[in-house]
């Protein structure tokens, strides 16, 4: 179904709904939870939490682009899953800046600390709880990388020679990096970082690499992607890009679907919350099924969207409608379908 056809279907359905004549701001909000299908869960846990899809407010060359440095960074256990297999670190260059190629030699240790993640001791050795794991040792050739604007793009990947299994029950997550040599570019690479009162992390650093004490910087850290294996059972998630303002275009998106299948979007006049029990385990019907708006392929990444241009009609202002995606997923359950969360829209200006 082409965009113009979908728009006509949307408009026809909306004109049958009641509207409020006075001016209102267009809104689109999400509610409920999608259910798990057989789509792939991403294997990367991002620290600090909350920066999976957004860049931080800072950037730093410590420690992965600084020679002769002793560095530690801690993260609160609440930012990690109960158990995680970590097979590498992913870093991303600061927003809108190209990454220059360089090489650096370092040792990287992973483990735990019983200290607060935001209050490390100024003595390196006293922060460790138990014996850390040496996950990487040697030279890393960092590739050049074009300037990026997508926070889901990692520009430097550090594959561990020894994987590390993190267990939340053992304490806060801690890593230590000791850089000893390198051939840096004249253009220094600064990696994405974040600081602020809500950041549940801290770092400490010193030169030379043999330093035993360092400077502590609380509520701050380089953003790290903990590279782990993907798994099945992703939750199908409805989201929106833009809002349904008259005369404007917006889209209703999905992610977490099984690859190489199809997703069907419908519009309802009534918001629901009906658990579907054994037929569709974990799934709920969040809107009445009044009009099928169209379908979209899930592609290789399990994502997709449908785009709509709202008619430039004052009669639509104040109309409310609801959306939900249904994904065809033969391996998910006996019925071979899974449902997303719901979306609640109000047309405005």
Number of domains: 2
Low-confidence stretches: none
Determine and state the CATH class of the largest domain: Mainly Beta
Find the count of extended strands (DSSP E, 2+ residues): 25
Radius of gyration: 24 Å
Task: List key phrases describing it.
about 350 residues; mainly beta; S-adenosyl-L-methionine-dependent methyltransferases; Jelly Rolls; 2 domains; 6-stranded antiparallel beta sheet; 5-stranded antiparallel beta sheet; 25 strands
Explain the layout of strands and helices.
Elements: H1 3-15, E1 27-31, E2 40-41, E3 44-47, E4 58-60, E5 69-75, E6 83-91, E7 102-113, E8 129-142, E9 156-167, E10 172-183, E11 191-195, E12 201-206, E13 215-218, E14 220-222, E15 224-227, E16 231-232, E17 237-241, E18 249-255, E19 262-268, E20 271-275, E21 284-287, E22 291-297, E23 304-309, E24 320-328, E25 337-346
Antiparallel strand pairs: 1-25, 2-16, 3-15, 4-11, 5-10, 5-12, 6-9, 6-15, 7-8, 7-10, 11-14, 12-13, 17-18, 18-23, 19-22, 19-24, 20-21, 24-25
Task: Give an overview in words.
The structure is a single chain. With 349 residues, the chain is mainly beta. The chain has two domains: 3-42 and 231-346, S-adenosyl-L-methionine-dependent methyltransferases (Single Sheet), CATH 2.20.130.20; 44-227, Jelly Rolls (Sandwich), CATH 2.60.120. The chain has one helix at residues 3-15, and strands spanning 27-31, 40-41, 44-47, 58-60, 69-75, 83-91, 102-113, 129-142, 156-167, 172-183, 191-195, 201-206, 215-218, 220-222, 224-227, 231-232, 237-241, 249-255, 262-268, 271-275, 284-287, 291-297, 304-309, 320-328, 337-346.
